[in-house]
Design goal:
mainly alpha, Cytochrome Bc1 Complex, Chain D, domain 2, 1% strand, binds heme C
Length: 393
């Protein structure tokens, strides 16, 4: 195992084959779609790969297509070039190939999260192509802001394999943020395009009529659908800032007041409305068995009616590059390690939004206690309780 891993790393560094010429197509998504739509997605995938390459280029020469919705490119052209391509340095010391230098062993060239080192990790590295991120300041269904991504790179994700990149040049960090947005956008457009080809453009075992063929030119119906898909994803990224969750003021309590707040928080934690204990176990000790999967895994398992432990059913997906399905743990909250930050603002956002891509639900914020949600003050009680748990293992 170890040797295979080392070989894979060496291959990544020196290049044992020509896998860097193009981005790998998203075969796992394509297979899952074929199953839910009961048709072949082969032609749709093939044409999607062609159009996506026309629009977004290759790992060595990425492009940022202008879309109607987001007129200014979401990522700086120079940053894109610095992050992509093979690792090297320019005369003035500028680093090139940043993604391959720092990220590719885990996140893979196309950002699938299935890089050679991924098999050893739990949680797995993020597949950026879903366009879903967990640790961010925005509403659950929204993209992270640039600042979220930048802070994430600086801090890393404690408790996971994702390291901190605090020591990189600030310019390199900016370039990498742009490149994450690029890979995520490109990958999400790819997914949506295959689906649109099947659902809107008559792709099946046979190609559709000429005007419905996927195209990077918007003068046909096929081209217009491609534009719409692109516009949608680019716009979501462009609007991320406006979806930041505002955090109301938080009082620092001490002594009896703090103890009373923590006690109320404990009641909410174990109570009907929030029922945190239902997943995290009584006292947040993570003692309950884990039965659920995250959205990245559900896509090729439970969501399409397949049992993750059924090796036979998983085989085509594994062959297409899917990682071995692994359950997601609600985790203990008593070990003092927060993946997305243990400060009050982060916890407020986590509780009121849940965690995107995972089973962790949101608690509704209500203005009056009504048995359905919690008021802001009650959420602060809960936050204080969770913070107290984490410091008293
Ligand atoms: C050693 C493996 C490893 C390396 C190297 C690595 N990551 Fe990660 N990364 C992970 C893992 C594991 C996760 C998932 C953590 C989780 O689900 O909480 C992750 C998650 C992420 C996320 C998603 C955060 C979110 O809010 O969902 C981003 C963005 C990211 N990594 C960017 C990068 C970039 C950019 C680099 C290179 C500069 C990089 N990673 C290098 C392992 C790695
Ligand atoms: C349906 C199950 C479920 C419920 C209910 C639930 N959680 Fe979670 N929670 C999870 C899972 C799964 C994770 C792990 C997510 C991950 O790391 O990807 C998690 C993670 C967390 C984290 C860790 C965040 C971090 O930064 O590491 C906190 C804090 C948390 N939950 C608090 C709560 C609180 C408070 C409640 C009640 C309001 C709650 N959870 C209800 C499933 C649940």
């Amino acid at each position: 195992m170890r040797i295979a891993f080392l070989l894979a790393v060496v291959c990544l560094l020196v290049g044992c084959d020509s896998r860097f010429d193009t981005f790998q197509p998203n075969d796992v998504f394509s297979l899952a779609l074929a199953k839910t739509r009961s048709t072949s997605t082969e032609l749709a995938s093939r044409d999607t790969s062609r159009v996506v390459e026309d629009l977004y280029g290759t790992p060595d020469e990425p492009l940022w297509p202008v879309s109607q919705a987001a007129k200014s490119p979401l990522s700086d052209e120079r940053n894109l070039l610095r992050s992509s391509g093979p690792v090297s340095s320019e005369k003035d010391g500028t680093h090139l190939g940043l993604f391959r230098e720092h990220c590719v062993t885990c996140h893979a060239l196309e950002g699938s999260g299935a890089g050679p080192a991924s098999v050893f990790q739990n949680p797995y590295p993020r597949d950026f192509r879903h366009g879903v991120f967990k640790w961010k300041s925005t509403e659950r269904g929204q993209k992270p802001t640039r600042r979220d991504l930048r802070e994430l790179l600086i801090k890393g994700i404690p408790g996971t394999a994702m390291p901190s990149f605090a020591l990189l040049d600030p310019d390199d960090l900016d370039a990498l943020v742009d490149y994450v947005i690029f890979l995520s956008t490109r990958g999400e457009v790819e997914r949506r395009m295959i689906a649109a080809a099947i659902d809107e453009l008559d792709y099946s075992e046979t190609s559709p009529a000429k005007g419905l063929i996927l195209s990077s030119q918007s003068d046909t119906e096929g081209g217009q659908v491609v534009q719409e898909v692109m516009d949608r994803v680019h716009k979501d990224w462009e609007e991320a800032n406006s979806h930041e969750v505002a955090v109301p003021s938080f009082a620092e309590l001490s002594g009896e007041q703090l103890a009373a707040s923590v006690a109320r928080g404990s009641d909410f934690f174990h109570g009907q409305v929030a029922n945190c204990a239902g997943c995290h176990g009584p006292g947040g000790d993570g003692s309950l068995p884990t039965l659920d999967y995250d959205d990245w895994t559900k896509e090729y398992t439970t969501r399409i009616g397949l049992t993750p432990s059924d090796r036979e059913a998983m085989k085509p997906f594994r062959d297409a590059g899917a990682l071995r399905p692994r359950k997601i743990a609600p985790r203990t909250l008593r070990d003092g390690v927060f993946h997305g930050g243990g400060d009050s603002a982060s916890l407020y956002r986590r509780i009121t939004q849940g965690i995107a891509g995972t089973p962790m639900p949101a608690v509704e914020v209500v203005s009056e206690p009504n048995g359905k949600g919690l008021t802001t003050e009650q959420i602060w009680d809960l936050v204080r309780y969770v913070q107290q748990l984490s410091t008293s293992p």
